[in-house]
Specification:
Shape: globular
Number of helices: 15
Oligomer: single chain
Radius of gyration: 23 Å
Strand order of the largest sheet: 14-18-13-17-15-16
Largest sheet: 6 strands, mixed
Mean pLDDT: 92
């Protein structure tokens, strides 16, 4: 990894002329009719406690929502995913798509007072390439990182990466302080639980099982932001308690539809509660049933197809999700219109067909009618997955599959699935993100099966043709050809069924109307909240 960190001025100058031929994008700043009032405390809701507070080596759902409060990225994004400045004030991309040049802001300080420089960017991106669950995909073609001066970074690619300019948001590609990480294992560094960043809020304390406290960074480079004096992140695992806290005004910001879907209609009538559906353009989540293909019974595609004939997506959408979201035929969220294929092969609910497939797979019923006993681990992130797991258990019993639903905390779940590999199948959620090469490839690329790396190829799926298509699509700059590659990938996946796409996640931020400007771009509440302020 160290070769990524060595500056090479001569090579930089060679690519710089081409890179600077593209237009350098200027600093932009959101305009307000009047400067927001400074001061006050806002409370932020998470349904489960995050395992870490910085996403340098993690993509856990709840960690993503806190990381950007302290740790920033090179860029941020408008709702249409147009890049905007953050730690990089200007950038350019060469015509061949192989060289990216970033001019960094002057005078930026880490929260411990050290100066932010290009060396921090080089270290962070090199580290993400090695240890981040999506980093192997995102920076697959990165061959060199050059730092010709303290405020310039150049990324050199061996092949184009058409998604890369959209992959540099704070939670996705966080820039961390090299002086606090260098020489350690990034995933195990204690700074991950007491972050030091350049962002608008300074980490104050983490009371396990209760809350995190962030305080205003008085030396933030984008003064007078942030406007809030304090941000308190509370963990409330119980859905009813989350709803009550929102209703009584204890919570100001609650992303990712944190209350039961059955309560949403009633909450729409509450005068102090607002609904925000923007701010999820960067995530595009889906729910899915994922099989452990290391288990002998799931190595037979007929067993996986039997599951597909039993699990009714529409029941999960209509009963579990109360009609929110959309049933999906494959691995891609319909909101990713550039990549979504609607007419994929599906497996209509057909108990007789499922029974026949299980018989053919050599799984007859025993004397008490049971074919197979399995344990089902659902991701502990909101009530949807628990209720969905209960439905799946009931549905599978009709074909003689006896399921034990196992619950656990988030850290235990993550270790069980991705490190210990101690599971049969799981009902979980994954973000497609802003581009399928970043958000979807990680789940099916055989080279992305790495025990211990969470939210990657958890099924241990391997298909040489899919690998070939994934790798080709990752460098294809012609959109029509790239769409054809992704269409072929989706067609193969619904035949192989390493997982079953279920429902696109309905994503809503519920907020107290006393807080304004909390959702100002594609990252939504997973962004920095530097612009958020109290209006009442």
């Amino acid at each position: 990894m160290s070769h990524f960190l060595i500056p090479n001025r001569r090579r930089f100058l060679g690519i710089s002329a081409a890179a600077l031929g593209a237009t350098l994008l200027p600093v932009s700043r959101r305009a307000y009719a009047a400067e927001p009032k400074q001061g006050g405390t806002a409370t932020f809701l998470l349904s489960a406690e995050p395992p870490v507070l910085t996403t340098i080596a993690h993509t856990a759902f709840n960690s993503v929502y806190v990381s950007a409060k302290t740790t920033e990225g090179l860029l941020t994004y408008d709702f249409d995913l147009t890049p905007r400045p953050s730690l990089a004030k200007q950038w350019s991309v060469s015509d061949d798509g192989l060289h990216y040049t970033f001019k960094l802001r002057e005078g930026v300080k880490w929260h411990d007072g050290q100066s932010f420089t290009a060396a921090d960017v080089a270290y962070s991106i090199a580290t993400i390439k090695e240890v981040h669950p999506r980093g192997r995909n995102t920076f697959l073609n990165l061959v060199d990182i050059q730092t010709p001066d303290p405020l310039t970074v150049a990324l050199v690619l061996s092949k184009p990466a058409p998604y890369l300019i959209t992959a540099l948001a704070a939670a996705e590609t966080p820039i961390v302080p090299q002086h606090l990480y260098d020489g350690s294992k990034a995933a195990e560094n204690p700074v991950n639980t007491a972050p030091v960043g350049t962002g608008p809020f300074v980490f104050k304390e983490w009371v396990r099982g209760s809350h995190i406290v962030y305080e205003r960074n008085p030396d933030y480079w984008d003064a007078p932001r942030p406007y809030l004096d304090r941000l308190i992140v509370r963990f409330i695992p119980d859905a009813s308690a989350r709803a009550l806290a929102l209703e009584t005004g204890e919570i100001d910001l609650a992303p990712a539809t944190p209350i039961p879907y059955s309560d949403l209609q009633r909450f729409e009538t509450l005068p102090h509660i607002g609904f925000e559906k923007q701010g999820y353009q960067y995530s595009n989540g889906i729910s899915r049933v994922e099989f452990n293909l290391e288990k002998p019974y799931f190595q037979d595609v007929r067993v996986r197809r039997a599951f597909a004939h039993v699990i009714d997506r529409d029941i999960i959408r209509d009963t579990i999700n109360y009609g929110y979201g959309a049933s999906i035929p494959g691995p891609i969220n319909p909101n990713l219109k550039k990549w979504f294929v609607a007419d994929l092969k599906t497996y209509p609910v057909d108990i007789a067909a499922a029974e026949k497939l299980l018989d053919e797979a050599g799984l007859p019923r025993d004397a008490d009618g049971t074919r197979l006993k399995l344990v089902h681990d659902y991701v502990p992130s909101g009530e949807t997955y628990k209720r969905g797991a209960d439905y799946i258990k009931q549905a599978l019993s009709a074909v003689g599959i006896a399921v034990t639903v196992r619950s656990q905390d988030f850290a235990t779940y993550t270790k069980r699935i991705y490190t210990d590999r101690d599971f049969d199948f799981t009902f979980n959620g994954m973000s497609n993100l802003f581009d399928p090469t970043v958000g979807v490839q990680r789940l099916y690329w055989s080279k992305n099966f790495k025990p211990g790396v969470p939210f990657s190829n958890g099924s241990k799926y391997s298909n040489a043709k899919v690998d070939e298509l994934l790798e080709a699509a990752a460098v294809e700059v012609d959109h029509e050809k790239r769409f054809e590659q992704w269409a072929a990938i989706q067609q193969i996946l619904v035949e192989d069924l390493p997982d079953i796409g279920i429902v696109s996640q309905p994503e809503i931020t519920l907020y107290n109307k006393r807080v304004a400007d909390h959702t100002v771009g594609a990252e939504g509440n997973a962004g920095s909240l530097a612009t958020a302020h109290i209006v009442a």
